């Protein structure tokens, strides 16, 4: 597991498994995970951080917007590639 996004508040780690990618967003101020999402069938995923949200996207065209406050999914879309 290697970090693929970090700033003074957040650390995002990507774990690539045989059948999915798991992204974990950690709050460094509170020293705890805020969001964890498993993307079945993906081989690569990434995150864009914004105040209050994390936008997750993968190589299968999925785009998810998650609240970093609650971990809830606020948007779920698929983009045709």
Amount of helix: under 10%
Label the overall shape. globular
Taking the alpha carbons of the first and last residues, their distance comes to 27 Å
Provide the gyration radius in Å. Answer: 12 Å
Strand content is: over 45%
Strand order of the largest sheet: 1-2-3-4
Low-confidence regions = none
Could you spell the SSE succession in H and E letters? EEEEEEEE
Number of H- or I-type helical stretches? 0
Count of DSSP strands: 8
What characterizes the major β-sheet? 4 strands, antiparallel
Structure in a nutshell:
By secondary structure, the protein is mainly beta.
Describe what you observe in this structure.
- With 81 residues, the chain is mostly beta strands.
- 0% of the residues lie in helices and 65% in strands.
- It has strands spanning 2-6, 10-16, 20-27, 32-40, 45-50, 53-58, 62-67, 73-78.
- The strands form two sheets. The protein has a four-stranded antiparallel β-sheet with strand order 1-2-3-4, with no helix packed on it. The chain has a four-stranded antiparallel β-sheet with strand order 5-6-7-8, with no helix packed on it.
- Strand 2 and strand 3 (20-27) form a beta hairpin.
- It is globular and about 35 Å long.
């Amino acid at each position: 597991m290697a970090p693929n996004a970090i700033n003074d508040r957040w650390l995002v780690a990507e774990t690539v498994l045989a059948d999915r990618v798991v992204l974990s967003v950690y709050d460094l101020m509170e020293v705890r995970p805020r969001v964890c999402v498993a993307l079945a069938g993906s081989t690569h995923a990434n995150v864009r951080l914004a105040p209050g949200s994390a936008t997750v996207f993968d190589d299968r065209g999925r785009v998810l917007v998650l609240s970093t406050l609650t971990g809830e999914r606020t948007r779920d879309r698929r983009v045709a590639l």
